[in-house]
Amino acid sequence: MESITTPAGITLAFDRYVGGDAGTVILVGGAFSYRKFPKMVELAQKLADEYHLTVINYDRRGRGDSSDSPGVYDVENEIDDIAALVEATGGSAALFGWSSGAGLALLAAASGRAPGITKVIAFEPPFVVNHENFVPSANLDVTLHKLIAEDRRGEVVKFYMTHAMGMPRPFVAVMRFTPFWKNLKATAPAAAHDWAVMSDYMRGEPLRAADWSGITVPTLVISGGKSGDLLRTAARAITAVLPNAQHVKLAKLSHNPNIALLTPPAGEFLTGTDQYVA
């Protein structure tokens, strides 16, 4: 494990996978994700081993071995975290974001505050752009923050999954009896950071091109044919408003992806090979 301390005093822990000299990519996880999540580790290892990339797999604030800003949930702070990480790990890096981490990666690139960002991969950012599917309540942060402040972690997981992510209640109830429930509870307080990232873009309203015009770097949006309509619609919608983007849909992929299917388009795009040349 390595770590940096940001100008704001946040400790960010990360693992560095050195595969070669093909460039650097930072993995940005989504809700309840952390750097030791098995699929994040597998993705990091495959990008390093098979595409000779240096991969930075970090704990976003409030997760794993990174510190937090309890009660302060602002997407601008996480953008600053990414900017600090890019600067500290070489000054130039691509971003690979998964789910709400994809939303954060896109917002970081749009902000202009991390000029070292070279490319962005957005894997299924959960934008809600119409009312045809689930639309979260705009003020769910009131209950979310209260549950976090009371350290009711199991309730945080259930509330966020059902009210912010739209997962069926019976499915979430079954998850309580799985081995990874304890890991979900461990990262539960960080869910407020995910809501801070995504809340403005989950209101059932079309995405506005003006909000994303700052993303001039090449961008690849990836979606899965086995994912729900909401995520597939979101992928098409964000691709349409980005200045320099392409979209690939992988028929056999879901939001809980097979990393062997996800890695090739990501690696090829990042290294500028095959049909994903940026």
Automatic annotation (TrEMBL):
Residues 25-258 form the AB hydrolase-1 domain. One of its GO terms (molecular function) is catalytic activity. It holds the Pfam family Abhydrolase_6. It comes from the Bacteria. This is Pimeloyl-ACP methyl ester carboxylesterase. It comes from Rhodococcus maanshanensis. The lineage of its organism: Bacteria, Bacillati, Actinomycetota, Actinomycetes, Mycobacteriales.
